[in-house]
Amino acid sequence: MKCLFGFALAAALLSCAPALHAATADEVEDATFPVLSPVVNALINADDAQDLVKRADAMEDSNELQALALYLAASREDPAQLRAPYQVAALLARRGTDEMLALRYLREADERGLWFGPMLAEDADFADLRQTPAFQSVLANAQRRYREVAAGRVGAISVLPPSPGVVVAGACPPVVVWLHGYGINGHLDESDQPLADAGAVLLGINGTEMIDTFDSFRWIGPGFDGTHRAVQDGLDALAARQCIDRKRIYLMGFSQGSQHAGALLAQHPQDYAGALLVSPGGSQATPTESKARGKRVVVVNGREEGPRNLRMSEDFRRLFGEGNQVRSRTHDGGHTYPEDWQVSFPQALRWLMGGDG
Fold it and tell me: What is the rounded average pLDDT of the residues 41-63?
């Protein structure tokens, strides 16, 4: 660990090297301490290599060299770490100072079993290296491994029924399909129970593509047909386990999942009865036309969200404003759930399903 500590400090010192020339010892210490302090604190307090990677991720936008030092330390501390050498390669490629060194660390990630091929294929940091034989070889390996890793994970479902004693209308229960935000997954736990207790089976679905960890997914385009297929497949899998009412399928999403939920209701209203859209976000354009009529829609966003999220929330309010019942709420927070979500969201779901809400 002592070698890693010294190595990381040396890397961090590079970021302030120009200021060290012709300086006194006291001046050097004053100049280097602000640069070294975050790296030293991370090296001292990190639990393991994975924690170092998380800390490096958090500082990458503010100081690439500090992040680079931590990625290098994590890569050397844990020979099984995939993301650490990958991020080293990406940062070096982004800086454009040493392409051979960037490829060296990319090959190191490949040797450790790099599997997130789709992410590598579109990573803008490697734009100048994309046509090199070395990059193409790593990419081919990563794409092959991705297919193996993603099988059984992409589109996997998580099911949460209502609690015993909750009255559910109809011979078969309705379903609320949960579409998660970018970088997380469809796993449901006990904190989600109030949503199911609104009177429906809650169905979480993993996104249509894995990102760079086994529990991080996203909904990919172009368009929203891939998400529609994943939702229908998830419903088919649920229907094979239990009776569900396919005429009462409601969508609920957050962030990227919210954008896709809104698009699905607009484009496939015959398959979905309504939607709860929470803080819509995403890189695709919001649909400008909707086939949905006679639906109930709730749009929730935070007052402190970014301009794009605020605009998308308004886009969906307008999109469903004609021929549907739309309810709206703006809470005081940002791009997150409101503090009272375990009460207000079940109320919204009960209203979607025909109650007073």
Answer: 87
Q: pLDDT value at position 178?
A: 98
Per-residue model confidence as pLDDT tens digits over 253-262: 999 999 999 9
Question: What is the rounded radius of gyration, in angstroms, for the C-alpha atoms of the chain?
Answer: 24
Three-point CA angle 148, 151, 155, nearest 5°: 150
**3-state DSSP assignment of residue 157:** strand
CA 153-243-220 angle, 5° bins: 30
Residues 6+ apart with CB under 8 A from 268: 228, 291
Helical axes 83-95 vs 49-59, angle rounded to 10°: 30
Question: Model confidence at 35, in pLDDT bands (50, 70, 90)?
Answer: low
Provide, rounded to the nearest whole percent, the portion of the chain with pLDDT above 70. Answer: 90
pLDDT tens-digit map of 162-204: 999 999 989 999 999 999 999 999 999 999 999 999 999 999 9
How far is the C-alpha of 87 from the C-alpha of 97, rounded, in Å? 15
The pTM assigned to this predicted structure is 0.87
Q: Measuring CA to CA, which residue among 185, 182, 254, 252 is closest to residue 218?
A: 182
∠ at Cα 152 (78, 90), nearest 5°? 40
Kindly state the average pLDDT of the residues 97-106: 93
- Cα–Cα distance between 79 and 247 in angstroms, integer? 52
- Beta-carbon contacts of residue 90 (< 8 Å; ≥ 6 apart): 102, 123, 125, 126
Q: What is the pLDDT of residue 216?
A: 97
H helices of 168-224, in order, are 193-196
**Adjacency order of strands within the sheet including 157-160:** 157-160, 201-205, 175-179, 249-254, 274-278, 296-302, 325-331
Phi and psi torsions of 160, nearest 5°: -130, 110
How far is CA 172 from each of CA 103, 199, 239, 246, rounded to the nearest angstrom? 56, 11, 10, 9
Nearest to 245 by CA among 188, 169, 324: 169
25-45 and 49-59 helices cross at what angle (nearest 10)?
A: 130
